Amino acid sequence: MRVGVITFPGTLDDRDAARAVVAGGAEAVSLWHGDADLKSVDAVVLPGGFSYGDYLRCGAISRFAPVMELVIEAANKGMPVLGICNGFQVLCESHLLPGALTRNSDLHFLCRDQEIEVVNNQTAWTSSFKQGEKIVIPLKNGEGSFQCDDQTLAMLEGEGRIIARYVGENPNGSRNLIAGITNEKGNVVGLMPHPEHAINELTGPSAQGLGFFTSILNAMVK
Amino acid sequence: MAKIVVDVMLKPEILDPQGNAVASALPRLGFNFAKSVRQGKRFEIEVEGEPTPAQVAEVERAAEVLLSNPVIENFVVRVEK
What we know:
In chain A, about 25% of the residues lie in helices and about 25% in strands. Chain A is an alpha/beta fold. In chain A, α1 crosses α5.
């Protein structure tokens, strides 16, 4: 199975994301933002960083990169896509996911180990977890506050489309402690904290992030 | 020369931490007039000659697609002399 990892100008976490894909048991394929070719990948990871310098709004310019046109088309046909941090922002700007990520409520850039609870293990990227499983992975962002209108929030809650919530104090002002959401089909997932930095206890707070990358193999086997 | 101006503001119901930070900095400097502050973005767009209604309409489209995020922001387009 081939999982593409997209590099935009300003992406930071593509190397770790590719490493996590391999640790999960798939082949990592590097994709460049200017490519008009998905290189026959079966799934795509949009890693974290500051694509296009976060100019205008986080993810706003990346959304129009040539490779994103193909990702949007494939995602709408069911291809699994995981957006982490800046990748989550790109997915919201692309309208593949509802809502938007805004400045942390206390204005500080946060970088810490964060406990989250996986509250939907039925998506392409969360099936390796137990429902309600609590994991600790790094959270590092300046604009991680998930916002949407009341109607969208009620829809996300009602349809079980929130996939992870922060445990304990709200780190960034996200509505209903939302750390990650999915689309209607469960193939597109956006997550603010970073599972790719938590695949090995030597370099991360846990190895619990690996579950996102093994989940995608389960999805393909089905 | 006239230019087309686009003002983008967070919707009223969206939390604006930057505006709040400005609002709390003002009284520390002795400025006591502000009940609240909201911070936004302003784009100034020059075109060849005087802006035409068609160009303004194009900017309206661009504001909706790129310059603002309609999920969290409102925008106003106008021609400024």
